[in-house]
């Protein structure tokens, strides 16, 4: 999996990387994602999911609250068909995915990176929304194609490494701007 390849490659020295496998189960996601945020208080959480339909590495801009009808690996589906009852319909990541996409594409990696506004109303979207809600937008989601279709684990690992480093850079610069505005 691309995430394990990223764990081997690592990120820049000032970043602590924690990699977790999240089961394809609604109830586990609802329990695990808040617990991970509480345990680590991360600057950013980047979720990675495999999409059989993906042919590119896809940066998801937002997560959706409603429309979850598919059964998970435990044959469960939330009765409300939503992540957070009463939550907003859609939550955007605070990361500017267009900027990240342009920057990573300019690096000349042998991987195509694209943008999406629909993570699919299944466990990927459910996980993303849950994390965005928990973090007030300090999350990202990257969809990758299945291994070998067309990219190797190493190619995906290097792409994720570049994407996450750009996301952290974009996040740090946007926070610098916010801090400057507050000082005046």
From TrEMBL:
The keyword Cytoplasm is annotated on this UniProt entry: yes
Keywords linked to the UniProt accession: Cytoplasm, Hydrolase, Protease, Thiol protease
Cross-referenced CDD domains: Peptidase_C15
UniProt-annotated catalytic positions: 60, 124
Annotated catalysed reactions: Release of an N-terminal pyroglutamyl group from a polypeptide, the second amino acid generally not being Pro
Compartment(s): Cytoplasm
Transmembrane segments: none
Record lineage: Eukaryota, Metazoa, Chordata, Craniata, Vertebrata
One GO BP: proteolysis
EC numbers, comma separated: 3.4.19.3
Gene3D superfamilies membership: Peptidase C15, pyroglutamyl peptidase I-like (3.40.630.20)
Family annotation (InterPro entries): Peptidase_C15, Peptidase_C15-like, Peptidase_C15-like_sf, PGPEP1_Cys_AS, PGPEP1_Glu_AS
Quaternary structure, from the entry: Monomer.
Native source organism of the sequence: Aythya fuligula
Gene this protein is translated from: PGPEP1
EC category: hydrolase
Keyword Hydrolase applies: yes
Family: Belongs to the peptidase C15 family.
Any single GO CC term annotated in Swiss-Prot or TrEMBL for this entry: cytosol
An example Gene Ontology molecular-function term: pyroglutamyl-peptidase activity
Chain segments annotated as coiled-coil in the UniProt record: none
Function field: Removes 5-oxoproline from various penultimate amino acid residues except L-proline.
Name of this chain's protein: Pyroglutamyl-peptidase I
